[in-house]
Write a structure and sequence with these properties.
With about 260 residues, the chain is α/β, with parallel strands linked by helices. The strands form two sheets. It has a six-stranded mixed β-sheet, with helices on both faces.
Length: about 260
């Protein structure tokens, strides 16, 4: 038995997301299995695990677009999916969600008008669009058609759309997949800037070296939470040098427990 100082629990008052017994069943398959976890406010929580472990399903549940969810899931003090949460949450899927035949600026102008319709909000919309384009470092590309952009640039346009309303919670499904190291670094710098401004970020990834960039981690495996805590706490708990080594150690422990009960 390993001895380590337990990490302080995230209290309900300090959590942006809390789940108890969260379960999602799709057909005969249980995609998420009785999850209990908390996502602290104003921090970056990394949702890490191999492809197919349930990360996207969990994110869809948090933003309220996942069907057949049971258990308790509260987001920003309201039940997940509550209509009042829509302007408070930014969600970026893996596939870019912008119009290819519009420019970067036109895409942002359109979505800003959906969020704040009417002439009275014209100046506020303009400022929000300019800020969001600058945040994702696309000012020099704002007149380019979205369909002419690289995959990484298209992903940044989708992120800019999510930033328009300055959301309290930003849910990002593998936002750095396929990006070059420099762009990945720049995006993570942006994520930390957003957290410093007070936003809560839930970011999924299957790239373990990104774990070290998060304040807190939820490690997933086969629809369950294998472990949660800060990168430092998980490394200390397992006596491993990296989060990837810690994850593999925890997987081996879980496999050993399963074999012992057979």
């Amino acid at each position: 038995m390993m001895n380590y100082a337990p990490e302080p629990a995230v209290t309900a008052d300090g959590a942006a997301v809390t789940a108890h017994g969260l379960t999602v069943v799709r057909g005969r398959r249980t995609v998420l299995r009785n999850l209990d976890f908390a996502v602290p406010r104003g921090r970056i929580t990394g949702l890490l695990g191999p492809s197919g472990c349930g990360k996207t399903t969990l994110m869809r549940a948090v933003v309220g677009t996942q069907a057949k969810v049971t258990g308790t899931l509260e987001v920003l003090g309201r039940p997940a999916g509550d209509a009042t949460l829509r302007p408070r949450i930014g969600y970026v899927t893996q596939a870019p969600s912008v119009y290819a035949d519009l420019t970067v600026r036109q895409n942002l102008d359109y979505f800003a008008a959906v969020l704040q319709p009417g002439r009275d909000h014209r100046e506020a919309r303009h400022d929000a669009v300019t800020r969001a384009i600058a945040d994702v470092d696309l000012t020099s590309h704002q007149a380019a058609l979205a369909g002419s952009l690289s995959g990484g640039q298209s992903s940044r346009v989708s992120l800019a759309v999510a930033l328009l309303a300055a959301p309290e919670l930003l849910v990002l499904d593998e936002p750095t997949v396929g990006l070059d190291p420099v762009l990945r670094r720049d995006l993570w710098n942006l994520f930390h800037t957003l957290a410093d401004r007070g936003a809560t970020l839930l970011i999924s990834s299957h790239v373990m070296d990104e774990a070290e960039r998060c304040h807190r981690l939820l490690l997933m495996r086969e629809g369950g939470i294998l472990a949660e805590g800060t990168p430092e706490a998980l490394r200390s708990r397992t006596h491993r040098a990296t989060v990837e080594e810690a994850f593999l150690h925890l997987v081996d422990e879980a496999n050993s427990r399963q074999e012992a009960t057979r």
